[in-house]
């Protein structure tokens, strides 16, 4: 097993835990407070790492004004993305959140192919299209046979939030790919998360939502901060790294497998169940991903 394959497998497993964690925090914290604490905790943790190991990379930010603009743009996009995503998780489920991530794959690939030559080369391969279509069909089966919509009247609203978040994420991927040519992935993660956390903190203070944290125990607050560090290490740093080293196309196909790991972990941690038809859809997703990745990996 080479490093690229190990990175993909690690990302899938770690993100499988990530969605249940985000689902749990979305039920216990307001969205603004949730994202402010998580992003600031994760961002400041990354900044400490950057100060120790990537000082030269940090100097690039101040040397090139265009990089500063790109990082600010990423922060705004991330702030919007996380707002809609956390609200979407609140009204749906951890599994739904992970599955919605794959539904934007065709859009993300088309956008990447328009702007980047290397992504166009990957997207031209027939096996990629066949595997992607099979995987998307499996993912749709996973969604259509879910019982969640009948249990929660807000499921449609949550689905709209998730769809909006995923659309914003597809734009983020393009900006990340461009910036990653000049900055290390961890520096991008540190600056983007910290700036986004500051934006959320300002919003929480302005709306007086921050006052709700006075009623939260220290254990829960520390747990939220640790969840932020974990989420950024997996959902941001590893994602940025895969986009940087393996491309947007590969990253989006890997996303297809995450609902399966989320479903298993969500079952044991949150009691979220899947039925026989969803299991069949999950198997189809795996087969589609293997087919697509075998050619372009």
If you had to describe this structure to a student in words, what would you say it looks like?
The chain has about 300 residues and is mainly α. Helices cover about 85% and strands about 0% of the residues. It has one domain. It has helices spanning about 5-30, 30-55, 55-65, 65-90, 95-105, 105-115, 115-125, 125-145, 150, 155-180, 185-205, 220-245, 250-255, 260-270, 275-295. Helix 6 (about 105-115) runs antiparallel to helix 13.
Describe the structure using short key phrases.
297 residues, 15 helices, transmembrane helix, Drug/metabolite transporter (DMT)-like permease, transmembrane, 85% helix, EamA_dom, cell membrane
Rg over alpha carbons: 19 Å
Structural class: mainly alpha
CA-to-CA gap between the ends?
13 Å
Cα shape: globular
GO cellular component, one term: plasma membrane
Subcellular location: Cell membrane
InterPro entries: AA-Vitamin_Transporters, EamA_dom, EmrE-like
Transmembrane segments: 9-29, 35-55, 67-86, 92-116, 128-145, 157-176, 183-207, 219-242, 249-270, 276-293
Write the layout of secondary structure elements.
Layout: H1 3-28, H2 31-53, H3 55-63, H4 65-91, H5 94-103, H6 105-115, H7 117-123, H8 126-144, H9 148-151, H10 155-179, H11 185-206, H12 218-246, H13 248-254, H14 258-269, H15 276-296
Helix pairs in contact: 1-4, 1-5, 1-12, 1-14, 2-3, 2-11, 2-12, 4-10, 4-11, 5-8, 5-10, 5-14, 6-7, 6-10, 6-13, 8-15, 11-12, 12-13
